[in-house]
């Protein structure tokens, strides 16, 4: 077996592990009293509800966010960088855009995003492998 085959086998094994463990995590998280689920399977919890307007898909939003995998390992965080980030909603993963569209400006929500609404089979970093479930806390600070 060559290097390419070994790498592919490793990625497939990691994807299967992430898929299984992510499904178990989401199933357990969904049992929490304050957790809601959209039709697509996006899980979310309202941490604080703002009173601003809700963005539309064509908007660019200003957010503070903190993203971890199901083990709590940070893979991306504007909070840690101490600098909010701006994103056109039509250019982010499905789970992000679907979730942020639910948020009035000034809100902070927690999202659990299954792989189908995230990066699917892509390996993003050592903390976020193929078929990973992501957990984000997102604060919607404004619409640009």
UniProtKB/TrEMBL annotation:
Keywords: Isomerase, Rotamase. The keyword Isomerase applies. It catalyses: [protein]-peptidylproline (omega=180) = [protein]-peptidylproline (omega=0). Pfam families: FKBP_C (PF00254), FKBP_N (PF01346). PROSITE patterns: FKBP_PPIASE. Residues 58-144 form the PPIase FKBP-type domain. PANTHER family: 39 KDA FK506-BINDING NUCLEAR PROTEIN, FKBP-TYPE PEPTIDYL-PROLYL CIS-TRANS ISOMERASE FKPA. Belongs to the FKBP-type PPIase family. This is Peptidyl-prolyl cis-trans isomerase. It comes from Faecalibacter rhinopitheci.
């Amino acid at each position: 077996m060559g290097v390419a085959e070994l790498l592919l086998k490793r990625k497939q094994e990691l994807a299967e592990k992430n898929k299984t463990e992510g499904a178990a995590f989401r199933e357990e998280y969904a049992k929490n009293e304050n957790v809601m689920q959209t039709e697509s399977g996006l899980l979310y919890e309202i941490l604080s509800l703002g009173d601003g307007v809700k963005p539309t898909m064509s908007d660019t939003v200003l957010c503070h966010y903190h993203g971890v995998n199901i083990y709590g390992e940070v893979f991306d965080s504007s909070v840690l960088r101490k600098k909010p980030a701006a994103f056109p909603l039509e250019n982010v993963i499905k789970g992000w855009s679907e979730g942020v569209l639910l948020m009035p400006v000034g809100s902070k929500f927690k999202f659990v995003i299954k792989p189908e609404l995230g990066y699917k089979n892509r390996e993003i970093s050592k903390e976020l492998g193929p078929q990973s479930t992501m957990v984000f806390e997102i604060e919607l600070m404004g619409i640009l």
